[in-house]
């Protein structure tokens, strides 16, 4: 992703093709447990009829699910759901399906452990490599967080753009490959934790993000890392509370 694409990031992805629709529905069904580990998927004819797609579209969808580690095809056996240890959890779609299907405290903790590894590192690199334009844009996004005149989706998109740009400002291509994971993690966590009563929380989330920008502008890698760790840990607390609240409601 290029920096000039960040302003157009959205939290909602429209499924524009039949292939994407089949992948999304089957992927969610697998992650959600509608098909058990080791269970074969329905045959091609049944799936073609169910999704009203051609054989070629279905085969491409299966190739995509195979690449994500969710299924494996064997001759004379059919296509079966693989063990979870083979699922690519950092894949944007696979992570998004987990949030849709419902996540546990353990899952959230593991997710935030990963964020805690790579986002502070990205911030530290950003302190060494970010341009003045990067800093100005990061500051603009930070000031939008928690704004009372913005709806939930606009706030989430500002947060998404902040964190994606933070990674890009670090200019490490290996860390940049984690942007899809980051997008799905933020989208899922904010959707999980959203409460209209919290829409005006404002100052805390703005200040913690501005602390990251301040450290980057001062080219203080250690301070940028520490400020980002604080933001991620606060996000972990909010997400865990949301999981607990959801569990209590059920």
From TrEMBL:
CDD domains: WHTH_GntR. SUPFAM superfamilies: GntR ligand-binding domain-like, Winged helix' DNA-binding domain. Residues 16-84 form the HTH gntR-type domain. Signal peptide: none annotated. Transmembrane segments: none annotated. Pfam families: FCD, GntR. Keywords: DNA-binding, Transcription, Transcription regulation. PANTHER family: GNTR FAMILY REGULATORY PROTEIN, TRANSCRIPTIONAL REGULATOR, GNTR FAMILY. This is FadR family transcriptional regulator. It comes from Peteryoungia algae. The lineage of its organism: Bacteria, Pseudomonadati, Pseudomonadota, Alphaproteobacteria, Hyphomicrobiales.
């Amino acid at each position: 992703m290029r920096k000039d694409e960040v302003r157009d990031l959205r939290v909602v992805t429209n499924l524009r093709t039949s292939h994407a629709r089949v992948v999304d529905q089957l992927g969610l069904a697998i992650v959600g447990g509608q098909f058990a580990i080791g269970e074969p998927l329905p045959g091609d004819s049944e799936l073609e009829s169910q999704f009203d797609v051609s054989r070629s579209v279905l085969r491409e969808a299966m190739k995509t699910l195979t690449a994500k580690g969710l299924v494996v095809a064997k001759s004379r056996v059919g296509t079966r759901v693989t063990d979870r240890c083979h699922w690519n959890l950092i894949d944007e779609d696979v992570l998004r399906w987990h949030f849709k299907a419902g996540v546990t405290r353990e899952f959230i903790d593991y997710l935030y452990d990963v964020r805690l590894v790579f986002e502070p590192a990205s911030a530290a690199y950003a302190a060494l490599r970010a341009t003045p334009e990067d800093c100005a844009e990061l500051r603009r996004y930070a000031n939008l967080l928690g704004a009372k005149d913005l709806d939930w989706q606009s706030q989430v998109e500002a947060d998404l753009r902040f964190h994606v740009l933070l990674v890009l400002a670090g200019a490490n291509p290996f860390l940049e490959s984690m942007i899809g994971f980051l997008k799905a993690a933020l989208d899922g966590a904010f959707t999980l934790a959203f409460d209209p009563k919290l829409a005006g929380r404002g100052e805390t989330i703005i200040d913690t993000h501005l602390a990251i920008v301040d450290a980057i502008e001062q080219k203080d890698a250690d301070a940028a890392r520490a400020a980002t760790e604080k933001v991620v840990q606060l996000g972990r607390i909010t997400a865990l509370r949301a999981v607990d609240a959801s569990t209590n409601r059920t």
